[in-house]
## 1
Amino acid sequence: MRPSFLPRLINDPFDDPGLFIPFQFQNRALIFDLGDIDCLAPKDILKISHAFVSHTHMDHFIGFDRLLRLSLGRPKNLSLYGPPGFLKNVEGKLAGYSWNLVDKYNYPLNLRLTEMHPYYTLCRQYRCRDKFQPLQDPVEQPFAGILYEEPAFRVSAVILDHKIPCLGFSIKERFHVNIIKDGLTTLALTPGPWLTEFKQALYGQSDPASKFEVRSDRQKPARHFSLGELAEKIARITPGQKISYITDVVYSAANSEKIVELAMGSDHLFIEAVFLDQDRELAIKKHHLTAHQAGHLAGAARVKQMTVFHFSPRYLGMAQRLQEEAGAAYEHCRRLK
Ligand SMILES: [Zn+2]
Ligand SMILES: [Zn+2]
């Protein structure tokens, strides 16, 4: 299966945390956390449509300025999600700059902020052209675990304890559409952007009898199929991809329960491992996980793959020890299940 999401840590595990999630078949990406993102190429930053911020400690949020700066004057909308207090945090950043020239830009740049609370969200919109003055009072909506959703995937979130609220995230594809090459060959179809439209039509639950037009070759006339007939010949549906991201959490029963539930069965879990287990006391004091605890949580959630990050600089040159400690706890826990 060619995965739809291609997640990668933005930085070295000793540098600012953050997960960049480009979409394989679209010029688009999501991002979990906005720490230092200077390592990302501007063309990659410009793919970001939705940014999910776990909490606003500087190492998770300083990249907001770069994302905004690159987005100014472009035909783009940005949606950002964060923990309680997030609207104030972003408004504070926006208030730190002068915006007297932005009404000349060709594109308005819409900014949509969502602040998550245990049972509701607050949403507020802003426009660069209006000097980022809020367009309305915050709009309250009930929240039951899903922070953002579109036909192909959803992003779930939980509030975890890091002495302050810190969000854990999980992106789950509704189902995965595998394109069968032989099917394309049999129908003499060439892969192209129409395949993305075809997948969107499947996610949109269009009537199988509905017509679907394929224009796979500019030189040749378009061909018409029923969506169901085409799906039968060129697509195989498998379970959707799931990626989870956990950072900046204290090891507690309440956090563990929420993390395991959120990350359960993930194809890939990215989880912080700030300290070695020999420094467990320090981890408690700083409200972070040890590598052993991270591995244990990954094993309990039966994830298929685990990557650890957010290593304390005290272990510079010892990354392997943190990885091995997490790996051993993961394997041990997997064997017990
Ligand atoms: Zn941090
Ligand atoms: Zn933090």
Note: The CA atoms of residues 91 and 182 lie 53 Å apart.
## 2
Amino acid sequence: MPIARNLKIRADEVIARCHRLAAFTETPGGTLRTFLSPPMRDCHHEITQWLNTLGAEVTIDAAGKLRGFYAGERPAAPRLLVGSHLDTVPNAGAYDGIVGVVLAVAVLEALGDRRLPFGIEVIGFSEEEGVRFGTPFLGSRALVGRLDEELLKRADTNGISVRAAIEDFGLDPREIPLARLQPDTLAYLEFHIEQGPVLESLGQPLGVVEAIVGQTRMDLRFVGRANHAGTTPMHLRRDALAAAAEWTVAVERTAQSEPNLVATVGRVEAKPGAANVIAGEARVSLDVRHRSDDVRRRAAEALGRQAEEIAKRRGLSLEGRILLEQNAAAMEPFLVDQIEEAIRETGCEPHRMVSGAGHDAMVLAEKVPSAMIFLRSPGGISHEPAESVLSADVEKALECGLRLLDQLAGSPEFQKRMCRA
Ligand SMILES: [Zn+2]
């Protein structure tokens, strides 16, 4: 099977396009692009032009997702979704999310005039990071039918609701049910930067994601007694911050003792917060992640018990609240195998890995076979302007994408799925 040459030129173009899109920003000098903000319209416009050149039909659905359909060789051919998200965090880099959409377009371009036994829908998700409304995955939730009334009522810091944001953009929230997955959808594929140091440490450009970890997020409050830092002897104190610190170290030790468990106390807030006052209250966050929901839940419970034990021993009270319980999502084994083979065909050693970050693919996986391909993140850096990709890795990703499409087109298993769709 002939893999298009000039992939190096296409890879450089992918990088140039990511930077062009990064210039569509709410904050001059950096990149911030949130759900249905004015720069998102410019971003849609730019990608629409690329897709129109390919003869793809582009629409913006009622949840603000860009959807470009590149038809298959038969009019009634089912579709494969390929994409990622177009929104960013504040002070973002140029690649998180974006490179997955730009790569999807570049793979279609590299097909030349070839059509496949299935159509390809390029999808640019409108909201994955959760920056504007504090809730992630609005675009993919709409796709699986979970953008409900309660979510539509959520407001941003200016008091604008999701519903109003959709209307302000010129879209119709009543059409959200039409933004669901088409019944002929075969699978969802997403290219994304790794956002971590693993592929770099292995010297490999590409990885295949087997599962996306589940997450538990909690908020804990240790309450003791604020008092004078000079006149209160050590044995008569009820220091909430010291308790929180002891527990933070316990969290680290617990995570170190369980393979692949990660647990983080990322925020501490002490009150009243003066140098000469013993902290009467300490609020701390907890984030626990593991690919096994069982391991994660047990770890979160154990950490809660440790917090209680520390509070009790120090004469403090403790309150805890669970903010998020998100189960892990398995990627589909057939697609994972196919991606592994495609990576190997590019001459690289495929690394099977677990994604420690959440992605739209974990929402899509509820309804449709899903899989992800990671590109090495130089320095493991993401969510900041220094985020980068290597041109040679993008070239490998393009080649992997083309080989994967050919494999799927020729796979009896995938053909069976196409007949059923
Ligand atoms: Zn992302």
Note: The longest helix spans residues 293-313.
